[in-house]
Amino acid sequence: MFNRIHHIAIICSDYEKSKDFYVNKLGFTILAEVYREQRKSFKLDLAVNGLYQIELFSFEHPPERPSCPEAQGLRHLAFEVDDIEVEISRLTTHGITTEPIRIDEFTEKRFTFFADPDGLPLELYER
Fold it and tell me: pLDDT below 70 — which residues of the chain?
């Protein structure tokens, strides 16, 4: 039986830019950072609100991700927030643009999308 999702792995094109985005702009906490010489790759373990959830990787010349969020595969990552307007305001101070707030037609909860430096769709979903 599965307990929960353990972590999400993200491969970025510019490690320092993505590290800055996830740590300094989104506010995730660094748990560990290693450089794997044999792969010429960084691995950054990040915590979201105290829980280990994201691995950020760098690899030499990774293929680009399809830009359309409806492409086959992982569609987006969603982060739960208490107050979507507060979080949008915080993102805006870091130069991050979000889409207009929408209402989930089934749950009646508010949500919006924004993107990481590589165009990976990220969602804020209000609790």
Answer: 66-71
Residues counted in the chain: 127
Four-residue CA torsion sign, 115, 101, 90, 82: negative
| Residue range of the domain that includes 31 | 1-61
Q: What is the pTM of this model?
A: 0.86
Question: Does some domain include residue 48?
Answer: yes
Rounded to 5, what percent of the chain is helix, strand, coil?
20, 40, 45
The conformation of residue 38, written as its DSSP 8-state character, comes to G
C-alpha distances (whole Å) from 80 to each of 16, 44, 102, 118, 122 are 25, 22, 15, 21, 11
Tell me what pLDDT residue 63 has.
83
Q: What is the CATH number of the domain that holds 112?
A: 3.10.180.10
My answer on whether 54 and 80 are in the same domain is no
81 and 57 within one domain? no
